[in-house]
Amino acid sequence: MKMDGKTALVTGSTDGVGRYVAAQLAAAGARVLIHGRDSARGDALADEIKRTGHGEAVFYQADLSSLAATRQLAEAVLADVRRLDLFISNAGIGSQNQGPQRQTSADGYELRFAVNYLSGFLLARLLLPLLKASAPSRIVNVASLGQHPIDFDDVMITKNYSGGRAYAQSKLSQIMFTIDLADELKASGVTVNSLHPATYMNTTMVRAGGITPISTVEEGGEAILHLAVGDDVAGKSGLFFNGMNQAKAHPQAYDAAARQRLRALSLELTGLAGA
Ligand SMILES: NC(=O)c1ccc[n+]([C@@H]2O[C@H](COP(=O)([O-])OP(=O)(O)OC[C@H]3O[C@@H](n4cnc5c(N)ncnc54)[C@H](OP(=O)(O)O)[C@@H]3O)[C@@H](O)[C@H]2O)c1
């Protein structure tokens, strides 16, 4: 992997699989834009990358449970860098993080939908002009095999809430957005794909759910890096991968009307409609 001269943004890279991916990209020579909520962990990774002496690292602090903070992150990135070759939308919370009960974001939206999906949707849309100007460039949405169809009459899951359903709805939303955006970006030189990195990696999210890990961070990290830099996926777009292999997502992902509905809703919820 040669990333000299390339710039990559990896959200949620202060911990877990995002941290691994950011470190690998930097080791390959990339300028890596690290992101998370915790400055101490962000600065520690930036220092570690600088000490190893190849790539560069800059830390951006932003809580993606707030759309205003998400916008500020995009604005900071756009102000700081002249090119963006890779955007890995990886930040996320599991089904149990911060408790099993239903919670809402700063904007009043169901928390897992807001953090895992809406913030990545907004970031991608705000960063698109720079990604297009830097083409060929890639977007990778880190989703999951855990997928639950969206009930458009109750997207914020006010009835029959469970953390598992909320997590899985947010992950299918990422996949639907991937297919939708790939259609829009045909011939732009920007590709967008999504994946399930690996099952129950040994990360904070999995441990917080009381689950015994069965995969390593390296395994999931390599699957993300495959979509991010792999030669065999160059030019491919709108796909879902299970680890290293192309796979089928939940049937709702292939329902064009549902994708269109999600797009319209997401534009409205993020304040981008009519912008
Ligand atoms: N672990 C698995 O087995 C597995 C399986 C399938 C898919 N995935 C997906 O892989 C991705 C990474 O998961 P992981 O297991 O590596 O999780 P993790 O170790 O818990 O790391 C999550 C990262 O996201 C950041 N984050 C969480 N909430 C945030 C918020 N409100 N604002 C900004 N940043 C936030 C965290 O930042 P802080 O340092 O501030 O907490 C951390 O950097 C997620 O999208 C997850 O759904 C994981």
Question: Could you explain the architecture of this structure?
Answer:
The longest helix has 23 residues, at 111-133. The protein has 275 residues and is of the alpha/beta class. Strands 3-2-1-4-5-6-7-8 form an eight-stranded mixed beta sheet, with helices on both faces. It is globular. The model has no long low-confidence stretch (mean pLDDT 96). It has helices spanning 16-27, 39-52, 67-80, 111-133, 163-184, 204-208, 217-229, 256-269, and strands at residues 7-10, 31-36, 56-61, 86-89, 137-142, 190-196, 240-242, 245-247. The protein has eight helices and eight strands. The structure holds NADP nicotinamide-adenine-dinucleotide phosphate (NAP). Residues 12-18, 36-38, 41, 63-65, 90-93, 115, 142, 144, 196-201, 203-206 line the site of NADP nicotinamide-adenine-dinucleotide phosphate (NAP).
The largest β sheet comes out as:
8 strands, mixed
Instruction: Give me the strand/helix succession.
Output: EHEHEHEHEHEHHEEH
So how many helices?
Answer: 8
Mean pLDDT: 96
Structural Rg:
17 Å
> What's the β-strand tally?
8
Strand order in the largest sheet? 3-2-1-4-5-6-7-8
SS strand fraction: 5-15%
Main structural class: alpha/beta
Range of helix content: 40-55%
Bound molecules: NADP nicotinamide-adenine-dinucleotide phosphate
Q: Which of globular, elongated, flat, extended, rod-shaped describes the shape?
A: globular
Ranges where pLDDT stays below 50 over 5 or more residues in a row are none
Q: What is the distance, rounded to the nearest whole angstrom, between the alpha carbons of the first and last residues?
A: 38 Å
